[in-house]
Write a structure and sequence with these properties.
The complex is a heterodimer of chains A (about 350) and B (about 350). Chain A folds into two domains: about 200 residues, no CATH class; about 130 residues, no CATH class. Chain A has about 350 residues and is an alpha/beta fold. Chain A is about 30% helix and about 20% strand. Chain B is built from 13 helices and eight strands. The model of chain B has no long low-confidence stretch (mean pLDDT about 90). The chains are: A alpha/beta (about 350), B alpha/beta (about 350).
């Protein structure tokens, strides 16, 4: 279902979506973040790459699994705490970030379906915004099987045509959201369609960065476990968690008990984001750490994304959003690392 | 004006003569706005080294790395490491020396004066360039940065682009060095704590709501901790497990370890983390600004450090990082130390 929505009619559409909690990019000084918006005026769809991706909405940094209370030793009370019913729309999702969610879907949707993840995922509708000029100088989606106008994972894709959006509904949920404000959406003219195709073609040319022959990387990585390469590449790494916490596809977590009272024992079991870049991620109870240094942790990040994930899920675990490159305090550049891997030993 | 060739020449000499293991400096990053840290081992690679007002990073964190790496090696190479430092960075070395974390013999210091100016603020520069990439940034003789970017050259008065800390820098040249390049001229700073004025004028409630909002953004990536050369503990209070766990630690002991800070990025936990971080820097922070620069959520962390710096100066007349032979503030006691704030 292809339609046209005038930009000046967007606030009216948003008002018709009041039954939903709406997240959209908002600007705070120099950075954009996805926040719950109360009025259409807070929405900024002229945004550059947001600090965090919409991953934080579906897979929040902190999730309560259950609450426990142990009034007497033999009879603990355990209360499950599933996310509440809260139908949500994320407005202005970049194609790379939507694709990233299709990758975390693979992880949380295997033999064991993660109920917390899927409760949020199934009640969240994604309204995408295609890129024309890349929102980050380090965008490279085309190299990792994505594109600036990819529809993967989205319910609706908007393409900016100047004073209007070209609107494509991609799922039944997308149709539902458009039908809430039927009179705002018009049928596209032949000229609109031509413009839309032109923008798509341009958007691919506008991308500044790429990796050629990435397919050579996964088999190459297999032989590089013991390579001194990782020591050299990780020399400047500071051991922070930026690259993984900002990544739209990283999904590792930790589980802890937050104890609120010791007598009677009372608390919450929570899941929080965790990262392979922290030493305690792999620390054994014995005190032994199989990934003792930053070289082995950088290797893990690259190998997980470009070897293990490829083997298990037939996809790169990277969508080319460029966040890890732009935000790395010491400019460790995943594209350069991959190029060096590709050319290693040849 | 510093000629980068002089720096390269010295780096080449110490590498060739085998005086140092490697040299830590700056090199151009092909894709970013800023340079990146360079680790030069081969004397023929010194031409990669650069020096310009974008050399923001405080490289002394890599001395902490080097010490930890050396500790893990069976037969470590005992030679020193060469390192390029600015004034502020050299003060970090002084603190590490005062605290006996490193020895003077561990490091060969290539000091560069900021020559009355300093380094640029990445965010200010990005705003001026509106998405364009700077190809070259130089300082002219009239106190302007001359920036070459796509579409031509622009001239911007230095004060509009300098990092806040550089505008308040107490000594913009290295205080400890083996080689010093550039002017050792002390810039006159009339108001070293001017950036705090606005924060100090706020009421307690206003400050509380400001910090609640700011620290709620924190995702606990610990980049502020990771970038800080003063944060060198092997065991940090915020890590969920204790590193002092050995094969002999019993299960009861492990279970009994106190968890001071929860991993949840809740405001209460974020406050504790940032309080701990800031308080541990009292009398130690040399205002290199790295914590604030690396924060991916733009939390203005420098305010906290700067305030403590001001308190240390006001109460004890102490400025961190000037004299390696002076005992550090928190480990020394003087009869005349004020105690009227102890209640």
């Amino acid at each position: 279902m292809d339609k046209i929505l005038l930009k000046k009619a967007l606030p009216q559409w948003v008002k018709k979506l009041q039954a939903y909690r709406i997240y959209a990019p908002t600007k705070d000084e120099d950075i954009w973040t996805y926040e719950v918006v109360n009025t259409p005026e807070d929405i900024d769809l002229e945004f550059l790459t947001t600090a965090l991706s919409p991953k934080k909405i579906i897979f929040p940094q902190r999730e309560v699994y259950f609450e426990f209370e142990k009034p007497d030793v033999d009879n603990p009370d355990i209360k499950e705490t599933l996310p509440e019913d809260d139908p949500t729309i994320v407005l202005g999702v970049r194609p790379c970030d939507a694709k990233a969610l299709t990758l975390t879907d693979l992880v949380f949707g295997g033999d064991f379906k993660d109920v917390y993840y899927w409760k949020r995922r199934n009640q969240t509708y994604l309204v995408g915004l295609a890129c024309h000029t890349p929102p980050s100088p380090n965008c490279f989606c085309l190299s990792v099987d994505g594109s600036p106008h990819s529809k993967e994972g989205l319910d609706i894709l908007l393409t900016d045509l100047g004073d209007k959006y070209y609107v494509e509904s991609l799922t039944k949920n997308g149709d539902k959201l458009l039908n809430l404000a039927k009179n705002l959406f018009k049928l596209p003219s032949a000229a609109n369609k031509k413009e839309y195709q032109k923008i798509q073609a341009e958007s691919e040319k506008n991308l500044k960065r790429q990796i050629t022959n990435l397919k050579k990387v996964p088999p190459k990585l297999k032989g590089m476990w013991d390579s001194p390469f990782w020591d050299d590449e990780a020399m400047s790494c500071l051991r922070c968690g930026i690259c993984t916490y900002m990544c739209p596809t990283c999904h590792c977590f930790d589980i802890n008990d937050e104890v609120l009272s010791s007598t009677p024992l009372k608390g919450k079991r929570i899941r929080t984001w965790d990262t392979c870049q922290f030493p305690d991620f792999t620390m054994h109870s014995s005190g032994h750490n199989p990934r003792p240094d930053k070289a082995s942790r950088l290797r893990q990040r690259i190998m997980h994304k470009f070897q293990y994930f490829v083997e298990t899920y037939k996809n790169y675990q990277c969508t080319g959003c460029g966040r890890c490159i732009t935000k790395c305090p010491v400019s460790i550049d995943i594209i350069e690392v991959l190029e060096k891997v590709r050319d290693y030993g040849s | 004006m510093i000629n980068v060739e002089d720096l390269r020449k010295e780096a080449k000499r110490i590498l060739k003569e085998g005086k140092v293991k490697y040299v830590i400096g700056y090199e151009r990053d092909q894709n970013g706005l800023l340079p990146k840290p360079a680790f030069i081992k081969d004397p023929d690679d010194v031409d990669r080294m650069i020096w310009d007002p974008t050399c923001i990073h405080n490289l002394t964190k890599f001395l902490v790395d080097e010490k930890k790496r050396k500790a893990a090696e069976k037969k470590p190479d005992e030679r020193p490491v060469g390192i390029v430092v600015k004034g502020c960075d050299s003060r970090a070395i002084v603190v590490l020396l005062q605290e006996k974390y490193i020895d003077r013999e561990d490091v060969h210091i290539l000091g560069l004066s900021c020559e009355n100016y300093g380094v640029i603020d990445e965010k200010k520069l990005a705003k001026k360039l509106k998405g364009k990439k700077a190809e070259k940034i130089e300082l002219d003789d009239h106190g302007n940065f001359v920036i070459t970017a796509a579409g031509g050259t622009i001239k911007i008065p230095a004060d509009e682009l300098l990092a806040e800390r550089c505008l308040e820098c107490p000594a913009n040249f290295p205080v400890v060095y083996d080689l010093l390049l550039g002017d050792k001229k002390k810039k006159k700073v009339d108001e070293p704590f001017k950036s705090l004025e606005k924060m100090e004028s706020l009421s307690e409630n206003e400050r509380w709501s400001f910090w609640t909002e700011q620290l709620s953004k924190c995702i606990r990536c610990y980049a502020c901790r990771s970038a800080c050369p003063m944060c060198y503990c092997d065991e940090c209070v915020v890590d969920t497990i204790n590193f002092a766990v050995t094969a002999d630690t019993t299960a009861t002991e492990k279970a009994g370890k106190i968890k001071w800070v929860e991993k949840s990025p809740a405001p209460s936990e974020n406050f504790v983390y940032h309080m701990v971080r800031a308080m541990h820097l009292a009398g130690r922070c040399i205002d290199c600004g790295e914590c604030e620069r690396v924060c991916p959520l733009d939390i203005p962390l420098r305010f906290l450090n700067k305030k403590l710096e001001k308190e240390a100066k006001k109460l004890f007349g102490y400025m961190a990082g000037f004299d390696p032979d002076e005992p550090s503030l928190v480990s020394s006691f003087k009869d005349e130390d004020p105690e009227d704030f102890i209640r």
